[in-house]
Inverse folding.
């Protein structure tokens, strides 16, 4: 069994077997020359010596780690579709040019030095069409694909070519299209010209494709590339990896095995082999962890918070539980087309009536920080000046009265036209925590005269209703963000999904405020951090006043880490902890 | 016989074509499409991206046109690509089908091998303590939810005793002796197969018991006993083959389930089988994968029914495949 082969301590049968066998052979060859008593003495001596060796030798290093996660990755091509399960593994086999580290600071991974305005590697320029753009000089680190081919600027050019091609099947082409030109200086240096001035000019989350393998496939038929890519037809090809590990085996739906990539030029990983098991049920996941079938459950895609809290209490002696605040924003979208929410005082009253502090303490043991808006307090762009809503049912009742919901019949408010304040909250079925939160909110809103009906839908039905803006009143779910990210797609007026824009955009509440649009535009263009922070303060202020979305919590990622496993550093961002997998090690 | 088999093959082909259309339309009518899911997962996708991808995946065409295109390709042996796995559909389903046949087949054989004698034993001792005990166990097996049984087994045999792995399939290294590899396979198979066996055992035993009790009340059984035939001859020579016919129907109907997989058991034990594949394909809007998976399940059900029909002829000489009683 995989999980048992590494079992640590010296002196265990697994460790002793090869050693004993070697000594045994020596004994057998000598025994022919000795009598029985001498042989017995020698055997006794060897046994004692063996036991002594087992005690004094350092513990046998664990070179295989068995981890588990709850999702099966789909396509392995890094450009086609984004999926957490895939990126958790791809981050072990390749690296993006840049990523946010555990301190939410942008760092170079596949590049040599982060290009900034300050170091002169980025600059604003005038474009031929009279608009402003930027030029960014990038130098790649000395890296080689697993088959020995160097990683070069030509891989970058090819990756952008695939990203921009209309038939390649790449999900979001926006990031590629904004690159107007790529000037290759040499094998490791190139200059990018982008079509605008933007704060995230040096956030190059691009993972490179190996041109020497993928280009012939792409050139043969770009429309078929997504089906023919070597990532899926020849997934164990070493030439697809330049990270510390490479994939050596895939058993779909069951496990992925990775081994140390010998061409990796960075820090040598401590494990020779990592086996990633797919266990979709979290209860079974926990049982596998406890039984030793897996060593570690990937925190980003593993145990739920309630499981981790219980685990923390029961198995504190064997596991460290880290609650890493993540940029996952749990909130309630308010359908602003609904007449009941037309007056913003109603939305404010609802938020005042929800005791988020009590919910966090009772359901999450206070581990999930309360959100006052879309920007996390840990985000470098957070501004503490915006209005905050504590639990204040009296103020909520006053605001509802002022908004015209004065008549109360059977405990439920009615407006002047006799419309009953009865609304529906839609959320994802199967998410026990969300369903519990919805029940608590239902009871709290009832106290101020708002009737809330809960509708839990399967995720795909929920997702469809959200994309088409078909939810009648409230929708509870979460957003994943990047540090310093401008919440444009969720708050900008042109991002309201409609048939005209093929239901794209994530402004599901239907929020449109020119002042907010202006602040979002300016924040995207501001290159100076202080100026951006001021603009973010405006965004948070306007959001807190208008409340198109009721903020609830910032989720925490619970990482249940066995005590001997060191070096796992949760990030709380989309850049997973596996980007630094070479630092993971087992210390008995 | 060959005419009969040819007619059944033609029936099966027509049913599969009809089923493929019905399933394709039903999946197509479900809310959302794959691009909606991509939009939900990628905030940077623009309206142009969505329109472009719908064209790339052919989702901008009417449903019937899409079905025809798929059917024409399928007739040439190309069942399309799985969008989730980026692999040809058959490449995704084939290993899962084998895994499911191993798991569900083992459980089916075990359940049948235990249930039939147990049902007969209970039927020969109606209302005895043994009968009550067997009934109790049967109802327990029928009532126990598979996920609960699975968790119970994992907790007891994997976590508490540490005897068996908690899930997954065996991972023998290259060069492992065949008997060691087989042992590992069996260790991994033990808990999921035991769960599935227990889930099926109760129902099969009850069916066998009921059918047997009914047959044992027949006049010809009484006559055989009156003529002094030994009890073993009465039971196995006269009663068993007649009681088997209704049980065979139940077993044949459950044959389709063998292939479509045991979703809950497969999920709990991380067993990569057909049930999980079809379920996930439906959730992910992976049309081709869900469609072909369900068609394979349909084919298996029809094959099971055919086997049952042939089985009737074998166990009951009065039945002929032409349908006329002899």
């Amino acid at each position: 069994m995989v999980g048992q082969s590494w079992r640590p301590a010296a002196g265990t049968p697994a460790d002793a077997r090869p050693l004993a066998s070697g000594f045994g052979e020596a004994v057998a060859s000598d025994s022919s020359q000795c009598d029985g008593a001498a042989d017995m003495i020698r055997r006794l001596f060897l046994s004692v010596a063996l036991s002594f060796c087992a005690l004094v030798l350092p513990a046998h290093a664990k070179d295989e780690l068995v981890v588990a996660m709850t999702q099966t990755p789909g396509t392995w091509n890094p450009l086609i579709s984004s999926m957490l399960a895939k990126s958790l593994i791809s981050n072990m086999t390749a690296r993006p040019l840049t990523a946010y580290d555990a301190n939410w600071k942008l760092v170079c991974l596949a590049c040599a030095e982060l290009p900034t305005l300050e170091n002169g590697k980025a600059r604003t320029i005038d474009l031929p069409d009279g608009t402003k753009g930027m030029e960014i000089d990038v130098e790649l680190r000395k890296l080689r694909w697993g088959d020995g081919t160097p990683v070069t600027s030509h891989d970058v050019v090819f990756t952008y070519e695939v990203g921009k091609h209309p038939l390649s099947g790449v999900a979001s082409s926006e990031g590629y299209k904004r690159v107007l030109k790529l000037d290759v200086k040499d094998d490791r240096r190139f200059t990018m010209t982008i079509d605008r001035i933007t704060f995230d000019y040096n956030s190059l989350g691009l993972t490179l494709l190996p041109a020497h393998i993928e280009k012939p496939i792409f050139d043969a038929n770009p429309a078929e590339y997504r089906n023919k890519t070597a990532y899926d037809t020849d997934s164990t090809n070493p030439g697809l990896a330049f990270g510390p590990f490479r994939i050596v085996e895939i058993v779909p739906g069951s496990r992925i095995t990775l081994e140390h990539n010998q061409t990796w030029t960075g820090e040598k990983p401590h494990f020779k082999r990592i086996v990633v098991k797919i266990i979709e049920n979290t209860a079974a996941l926990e049982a596998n962890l406890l039984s030793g079938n897996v060593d570690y459950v990937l925190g980003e895609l593993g145990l739920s918070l309630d499981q981790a809290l219980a685990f923390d209490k029961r198995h504190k002696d064997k596991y460290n539980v880290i609650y890493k605040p993540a940029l996952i924003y749990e909130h309630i979208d308010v359908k602003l087309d609904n007449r009941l929410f037309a007056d913003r005082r109603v939305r404010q009253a609802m938020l005042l009536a929800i005791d988020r502090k009590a919910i966090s303490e009772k359901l999450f043991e206070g581990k999930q920080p309360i959100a006052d808006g879309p920007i996390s307090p840990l985000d470098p762009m957070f501004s503490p000046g915006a209005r905050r809503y504590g639990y204040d049912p009296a103020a909520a009742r006053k605001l509802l009265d002022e908004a015209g919901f004065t008549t109360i019949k059977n405990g439920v408010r009615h407006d002047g036209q006799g419309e009953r304040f009865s609304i529906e909250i839609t959320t994802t079925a199967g998410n026990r925590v969300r369903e519990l939160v919805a029940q608590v909110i239902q009871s709290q809103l009832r106290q101020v005269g708002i009737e809330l009906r809960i509708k839990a839908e399967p995720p795909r039905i929920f997702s469809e209703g959200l994309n088409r803006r078909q939810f009648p009143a409230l929708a509870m779910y979460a957003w994943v963000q990047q540090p310093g990210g401008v919440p444009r797609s969720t708050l900008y007026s042109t991002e309201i999904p409609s048939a005209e824009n093929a239901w794209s955009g994530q402004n599901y509440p239907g929020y449109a405020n020119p002042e907010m649009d202006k602040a979002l535009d300016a924040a995207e263009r501001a290159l100076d951090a202080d100026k951006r922070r001021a603009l973010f303060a405006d965004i948070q202020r306007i959001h807190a006043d208008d409340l198109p979305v009721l903020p609830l919590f910032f989720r925490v990622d619970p990482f249940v880490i066995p005590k001997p496993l060191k070096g796992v550093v949760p990030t709380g961002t989309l850049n997973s902890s596996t980007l630094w997998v070479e630092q993971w090690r087992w210390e008995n | 016989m060959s005419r009969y088999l040819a007619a059944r093959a033609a029936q099966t082909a027509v049913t599969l074509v009809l089923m493929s259309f019905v399933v394709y339309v039903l999946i197509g009518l479900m809310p959302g499409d794959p691009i909606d899911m991509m939009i939900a997962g990628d905030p940077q996708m623009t309206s142009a991206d969505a329109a472009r991808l719908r064209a790339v995946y052919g989702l901008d065409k009417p449903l019937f046109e899409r079905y025809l295109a798929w059917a024409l390709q399928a007739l040439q042996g190309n069942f399309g690509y799985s969008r989730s796995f980026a692999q040809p559909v058959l490449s995704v389903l084939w290993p899962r089908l084998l895994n499911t046949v191993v798991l569900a087949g083992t459980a089916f054989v075990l359940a049948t091998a235990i249930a039939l004698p147990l049902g007969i034993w209970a039927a020969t001792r109606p209302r005895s303590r043994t009968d009550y005990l067997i009934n109790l166990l049967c109802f327990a097996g029928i009532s126990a939810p598979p996920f609960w049984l699975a968790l119970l087994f994992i907790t007891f045999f994997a976590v508490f005793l540490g005897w068996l792995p908690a899930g997954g399939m065996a991972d023998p290294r290259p060069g492992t002796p065949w008997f060691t590899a087989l042992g590992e396979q069996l260790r991994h198979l033990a808990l999921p197969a035991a769960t599935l066996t227990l889930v099926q055992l109760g129902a099969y035993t009850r069916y066998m018991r009921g059918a047997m009790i009914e047959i044992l009340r027949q006049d010809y059984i009484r006559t055989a006993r009156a003529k002094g035939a030994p009890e073993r001859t009465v039971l196995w020579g006269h009663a068993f083959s007649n009681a088997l016919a209704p049980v065979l129907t139940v077993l044949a109907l459950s044959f389709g389930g063998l292939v479509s997989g045991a979703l809950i058991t497969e999920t709990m034990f991380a067993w990569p089988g057909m049930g999980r594949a079809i379920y996930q394909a439906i959730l992910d809007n992976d049309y081709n994968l869900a469609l072909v998976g369900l068609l394979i399940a349909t084919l298996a059900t029809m094959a099971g029914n055919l086997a049952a029909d042939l089985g009737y002829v074998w166990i009951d000489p009065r039945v002929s495949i032409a349908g006329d009683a002899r």
Observations:
- The two ends of chain A are 21 Å apart (CA to CA).
